[in-house]
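Minutes, structural biology subgroup

Action item carried over from last meeting: produce the C-alpha cell record for GAF domain-containing protein (Streptomyces rhizosphaericola). EB confirmed the sequence was re-checked against the source entry. Recorded below for completeness.
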Amino acid sequence: MGSAVITARAAATFEPVGRSVATARAFVRDTLQGWGYNDVVDDAVVLTSELVTNAVIHAGTAADVLCLRSEDGVRVEVADHYPEREVPLQSTGLDFGSPDRENGRGLLLCAALAARWGVEYTPTRKHVWFQLDLPERPVGIRSAGPLLPTALLPVADQRVRVAVVQIDHSGSIAAWNDDAAFLFGHAPDQVAGKQLTDFVAWPHTPGTNTGIAEALRLSRWEGSYGIRCADGRTIPVYASHLRVRDTDGEPSTVCLLVRDHERAVLQSPVRAPVSDSSAENRTTDPFEVFIGSPAPDDLDGLLQRTVERARDMLDADAAFLLLATDDETELEVRATTGLPSARQRFARVPVEAGTGRYGSARMPAVHEDLTAVPGAVPLLTDTGMRSVVTVPLKVEGRLTGSLGVAAEAPGRYSNEEALRLQFAADRIALAVESARLGELERLRRGSLSFLVEASDLLAGTLDRDQTLALMAQMTVPTLATWCAVYTIADQSSDPYLSYVLHEDEDLIDGLKALLSKVSPPDPVPTPGARIWSAPSEAGHRAALSTSTRSLDHDAPLSMSTATRTILATAQAVGGETVVLPLVARNRVIGMLTLGKPSDDHFRQEILELAEDLSRRAALALDNARLYSERMAISQSLQRSLLPPGLPDVPNVEIEVIYRAAGEGNEVGGDFYDVFPIRDGAYGFAIGDVCGTGPEAAAVTGLARHALRLLAREGFPGPAVLERLNAAILDEGARSRFLTLLYGELWPQEDGSALLKVVCAGHPLPLRLRQDGTVEPAAEPQPLLGVLDDLELYEQEVTLDPGDVLLCVTDGVTERREGTRMLGDDGLADVLSTCTGLTAGAVAARILRAVERFAAEPASDDMAILAMRVPEPPLA
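Output recorded by EB:
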C-alpha cells in the first residue's frame, strides 16, 4: 500500500466451487465492518465478488483473498493459481469489452470504483488488487471570539445545564451527571451500561452509513440530534463529542450536551480564513455566503442547511426543498423546516400543471394567498401556510429541484423576494446536484451488493415456504416497514395471502388479520410499483370504529389489548403501500406488497430496487413451485411401488424396515412384499435391482406386481421366478439384473410355519433358533435378468415356535467403514443376540447395528424382513 503503515491484515482461501463467491463476500464484509470501514464496504464487496468469480469460475482454481488495513484506506488482493491465463492490463491498450459480457467485468469495476488497482504476477500465481481510500472526516476546531456588548450575547436560561455523558468503547453509557438526569429524566442507575443508541433520536439518512455509532468513533464531532426522555418526549440537543483514552489505552467518548437553543454554549464558531496580501483581490463565494462554511459534505445535511438558510433569509415560518426525478416528471420532498417532515419526506408530486400538481416548478412563482388557489402547492395543504414563494433549481437548463419558503400570513412575499430566493437557488443548484449524484452512486453500489446477496439466497433453496420467507425478510426492514406476499396457484385462482412480515413482530398477527379482511390487489402484469390504498383505508376504518367504541374511556391505559392492537396496526399501514407483480415465465404468480407506517413514503430509488428484487424473487418462487410439483409427482409414483400394507398372517409375526438411498427417494432398487395368495397361503419376497434411483425403481415395480400376479395364478415358486426372468429380459436395454428371495408361507395347526423358498442370487436368509444358533435357510441359485434359461428349485424350511427367519438385501451386509464390512458373519453375530425378541424388535436391532457400524450415511438401499413364529402362551 505504498508508504502507508499496515495496521491489520486478514486472509482466507476459497475452494474453486460456486458457493465460494458468496463466502468470500461475507468474509470481506465482516472483516471491513470489524475494522470500522463501513464507508467502503459495499464497493469492496462488489469488487471482491467479481474477482473471486474470475478465479474460482473462469480460472477454475482456488482464490486467495487478502485484506490489508491502513490509516487511510484498505487494500484487497485476490489471487488465483493459473498464471498462464492472460489478464488484460490497463497499460496494454487492450479492449476491456462490453460490461454485458460474462467475463472481464471485474477489471471494469476496479477501474470505475477503486482509487488504485493493478494486476501482478509471480512464478506460481497472479493476483488482482484494488485500494479504496476512506473519505476524509473533518474534526472539530477551536476558536476565540471578540469582546461583545452584553446586548449581543446569546440568550440562555438562568441556569444553563450541561449534560456530561461518557461512553465506553462498546457504546455503553459509563457516566451520566446530574444535569443529564435533570434534562432527560433518566437517573444514572437507569442508564448505566445501556447503549447510547437506545436514547438517541438520530436524523437517519436512508442509503448512507452515517449514524451515532460512527460519530462516537471520530476524534471530535459537533452537531444536533435528539434525546428521548423518560416521559416519552424527544428533546433536541446540541452535542460536542471528544474521543479520549485512559491510562490503559482503552478509548471512550465524552459527550457534552445542551438544549438546542443554547447551542452557543458549545458550538465552535467557524474560523475565518487567514488574510494575506491578496485578500483584497479575492471575491467571496456566493455559495458560502448562503450556506456558510464549512458546507455539509452529505446531501441531506446540505439540503437541510439550505431550507434553514432560505427560511431565515426571507423571515419565513417554513421552507422546503424538492428534488426532481431523472425524467423531470416528479418532484420528491427531501428537506423541510417548520413542516411535519416525517409526514412529507419522500412524498412525490407531478411537475405538470393541474389540481394537486406542482405547476410552479419550472419558474419562480409567488402565491399571495393559497386559500384562493387550493392545491397550488400540495406540500402545504392543511399546514396553515397562506403565502409562499417557490423557485426552480436548474443545472445547465435542466430542472433538478424546487426551493420554497412559506408564511402563515397572506401577502408576505412579492417578486423582489422571489428574485432574492432565485439568486440563492442558482448559487446552490450545482452543489445540490453534485451531492445528489454522489448519493445516487452510493445507493447504486449498495443496491448492487444487495441484489447480489439476494440472488445467492434465493438460488440456495427450492422450498416454496422458505422462498416466501426469504422474500419478506430481504425487504423488511431494508426496503419497507412491512411486507405481504400474495401467491396465485393458477390462472383461475384468486390471490392468496401467503406470508406477512413486519419489523415489529408484535404487529404481525394484527397486520395479517387486517389484510385477510381486505380484497387482495388485482394481479396486473404491468411492471413497476403501483399504489394500493386498500390497507390504509381499512386500517383507518378499523381505528375509527375502535376509537368510537372507546370514547367512554378516560385514558389510553384503560384501553384493552385488542383495541391497542387495532390502533397500532392502523398506524403501521397508514403510510404508502405499493404492489409489485411477481411475473415468471410470462405469468403472474403473485404480488409483493410493501408498506410504510402512517404518512411515510417510499423514495424512487427504493422502489426501483424493490422491482429488481421482485423479478428475481418471482423466478425463484416459480422454480420452487415447479420443484414442489415434480417432487409431489415423484413421491406419488414412488409410493405406488410400495406394498399398501402388511397382511395379518395367523400365528406369524412379520416386520419390515425399508430405507431408500438418496435425498427425496422413497423407493429405490431394493423392494419387499408380503401378500396373500389363497386361503392359508401367503407369499413373501425381498429383492435388489442393480443400481438405485428411478431406473431401478421401474424394475422394482415390474418385479413386485409380476410376483403377485403369477403367484395367484397358482404357479409354484420356481415357475414364478422363471417367468419374471423372461419379463425382465423383454425390457431390452432397460433391463437390469435382479437378486430375489421368494417364498411361500403356510401357517400350521401345531403352531409352526412351513416355508418354501427360492434364493435367486440373493443374500441367503438366516434362521435363528431358540437356542441362539444361526444358520442359512436356503442355498444360492442364479440371479434373474442375465440368463435366458434358468433351472431353479425351491427348498422347504419349517419354523418352530420361537424361531426367526431374517431376510435382508446387500445394503445391510455390505455396510462399510473404511476397509471393514459387516458381512454375512457380522449379520449372523447380531442375529444370534435376538433370541426371545419379537419380529419388530429383531428388525430394529439389525437396523441399529447397521447404522452404528459406520459414521457416514448409508449409500445403498436397505430392506429388512423379519418373520417369527411366536411361542405358545404359558398355561
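Discussion: The longest strand covers residues 234-245.
Next step: EB to file the record with the rest of the batch.
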